[in-house]
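User: Predict Sigma-54-dependent Fis family transcriptional regulator's structure from this.
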Amino acid sequence: MSQSSPLFNRWLSQIGPDTGIEALSDLLDNGVIFAVDAETKILFWSRGAERILGLSSEQVIGKPCSEAIHCEQGKDPCNLAELGIIKDQYVKIRCAGSNSNSFFRTARAFFDAEGKFAGAFEVLRPESPMQSYSPPEEDVENFHGIFSRDPAMKNALKIIRNVAETETTVLIRGESGTGKELVAHALHMESHRRDKPFLAVNCAALTPSLLESELFGHARGAFTGAVRDHSGLFQRANGGTLFLDEVAELPLELQSKLLRVLQERSFIPVGGDRSLTVDVRIIAATHRSLREEVKVGKFREDLMYRLRVVPVFLPPLRQRRLDISFLLWHFIARHNPYGPRRIERVEPDAMRLLLNYPWPGNIRELQNVVEYAFAVGRGPDLTLADLPPEFQEPTAIPTFPANAPGVHLNSRDEASQIVEALQLTKGKIGAAAEMLGMTRVTLWRKRKKYQVQ
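Assistant:
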């Protein structure tokens, strides 16, 4: 127990106890602090209480606490006579004319010499998922704007960081929206080619003739409309990096020409009559298996081995459960400064739905969901109604297959879910609670109920 010294007591009497208490309360401006007497009439109301609960001290001083604060969940914050010390009790309260909000409550009651209740101090801290678990810096990998705290993604980033220092050709495998181009750019920025061009092309977006001209360039008169020489991507990326996205879609007639560039570092432009030499590092990406494409005759086996020197597999978002809530708040933080809406909380039901959703569009889809919520919703709480239509369908919460990684919130009993969440997060209470879509206090209560260590 902390104790004050005689010097402190003397100093406090000089500045005045009221001044000292007011100064201390101002240091916690993101929380509600108030004091009540033996009849629970409010004696002190902090500036944070005015701002968060929307009631001035003139409106509440001298009035019963119950007139200012109405409890909807948890024990009545105004009923302190039976209590000694409370720490981090979860309550949901509202004030007159305002919406209900969730808080973590800490209180200390005082009793006179006869043991009668004499008053209390109370602190209410707004519940915020960002505050309930803010991962330490060493827990979050930030590699050129690629964020993750999931072990599978961190392992992929380790490979990416190591291979970036070499000249090795890299093939990035991953579903649409997993960030393949971000990874390719990170590889370029970590290499000695970082001061040279980084160019990209989607092999599925152009017709074979246009793609050939875009990659290798063409000479004037090579075809109708070719009124001048055109430098292709290989020429323009000389000394740097060329990213071939969706390389499995590359037409067979162009695969042999790409193989020649990889083997001999030279090519002939469309309609040209001389060979050009280039120094370009190739990074390719695909959501398909090149081995399967080789089996069905759609991809050259020799080119596959040239491209697939170091394969890097990016896990889909549904397998990065530790990243879903973290990335959700990362994107919310991007939107918050630009109004008119500022999201401060995510309702537990909405968070559970987001955590269970299979995310076929991966991170790109998560970005779109956040943008949708900012566009259609209002107020500080992200609710179920703020989610896109596909989340309102009965199939929005799937039953995952037994081999799907992560916590399957609908597949086992609650105690098993809690055990698995704690195992995945290495015992980190905040991360486990976030994964399960509940507060730290709720998780603590359920651990005690199920006797989960």
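The CA atoms of residues 177 and 362 lie 5 Å apart.
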